[in-house]
Design brief:
Layout lengths: L1 E4 L2 E4 L8 E2 L8 H13 L13 E6 L2 E6 L8 E7 L4 E4 L8 H9 L4 E4 L5 H4 L7 E5 L3 H9 L18 E2 L12 E5 L4 E3 L5 E6 L8 E5 L4 E5 L5 E4 L15 H11 L8 E4 L6 E2 L2 H14 L6 E4 L6 E7 L3 E5 L5
Parallel strand pairs: 7-8, 9-11, 15-17, 16-21
Antiparallel strand pairs: 1-2, 3-10, 4-5, 5-6, 6-7, 12-13, 13-14, 14-15, 17-18, 19-20, 20-21
Helix pairs in contact: 5-6
């Protein structure tokens, strides 16, 4: 079935999820949408657990689950990853945390203690943090996450004016995560999480999308979890508050400088699992992203197209990443 909404056409997928998207604000990359539609319709590991009907669960590796959920904000649907080690587990991002998200995590981790880590402080990545007692992030992102938590209602933009449904995706607002305090721990780049038996996951500072964005390297399985800095289709730069003391890192230059370092470590991982869209991307693709960052910093006015920002008079400039979408930025965050 196809729907046409304004200028955006998208294909709905048969699913048991309790959510139902009805407005899309962002044009989807055709390769990315083809991948996701095929996966959601044909992957034989797909399962929706009774304890939480807001997530499709996929067995991506023997010890890795991908938890897919529909976007509540009208843009890219998101992945949460649950990585199982010999003694401990790791939950990478918490999405919007709809339903009994903690129950789902604990069913998948099978009694293991687990770390919860945010790649960055946007509500589709840390909205479910309050289900847990302790959450980790890069130290430069602590203030951004705390600012989000301190807003009177961090979910206002995704709930309709009557508070009875979603603004872009049908869901029950009563299923939003609880308003409760939790411990937020900021760590330095290079921090190691030990999942037991020598199974190490390294947190690596990788700004650009936000000032304190990070990626996570599973050293044993050679997987890099890339958050929003490594998505096929579109890679948005520059989402940091103007008064953020680290806002200088939410720039194309910030991403370029850290990618320079990471690309010297390409022999340490084979696959990239971003927080949106296509998963299992080959690691060499990062060289294309780095090359685009270099082109933008050398000549920001040499872009390929201009994209109006929704509900704003601002413009974003888009520079093509070879065969895989666009890097987008505003004039002030090069």
């Amino acid at each position: 079935m196809y729907k046409y909404l304004g200028q955006f056409k998208y294909r709905t997928v048969n699913s048991r999820l309790k959510t139902r998207p009805f407005i899309k604000l962002e044009e989807e990359n055709p390769v990315r949408s083809a991948f996701m539609n095929f996966m959601r319709e044909h992957d034989k590991t797909k399962c929706v657990y009774d304890c939480n009907p807001y997530f499709e669960v996929y067995r991506l590796r023997d010890n890795l689950y991908g938890l897919y959920s529909d976007s509540l904000g009208g843009v890219a649907d998101q992945w949460v990853f649950v990585l199982l080690g010999p003694q401990k587990a790791m939950v990478i991002d918490t999405a919007y945390g709809l339903g009994n998200f903690r129950a789902l995590v604990e069913e998948l981790t099978e009694g293991r203690p687990y770390y919860v880590v945010n790649t960055h402080g946007h509500p589709d990545h840390c909205g479910g943090n309050s289900h847990f007692d302790r959450v980790y992030c890069h130290q430069y992102e602590v203030d951004a996450i705390r600012r989000l938590e301190a807003t009177s209602d961090k979910f206002t933009s995704i709930v309709n004016d009557e508070g009875t449904d979603g603004r872009y995706t049908h869901f029950d607002p009563a299923d939003l995560p609880p308003a409760r305090d939790y411990e937020l721990v900021g760590v330095e780049s290079g921090h190691i999480f030990n999942l037991g038996g020598g199974f190490e996951v390294e947190l690596i500072f990788m700004p650009g999308h936000t000032a304190g964005h990070c990626v996570l390297l599973d050293k044993r399985d050679r997987i890099l979890f890339g958050g929003d800095d490594m998505c096929i289709g579109v890679l948005h730069i520059g989402f940091a508050a103007t008064d953020d003391p680290y806002s200088r890192y939410a720039t194309v230059t910030g991403l370029r400088d850290e990618l320079e370092k990471l690309c010297r470590r390409l022999n340490e991982f084979d696959s990239i699992f971003p927080a949106h869209g296509i998963v299992g991307i080959g690691s060499l693709w990062l060289q294309d992203v780095l090359e685009t960052c270099r082109e933008v910093t050398e000549n920001p006015e040499d872009y390929d197209k201009v994209i109006p920002v929704f509900n704003s008079d601002k413009l974003r400039y888009a520079k093509r990443i070879h065969d895989s979408g666009y890097l987008t930025y505003e004039a002030g965050n090069v």
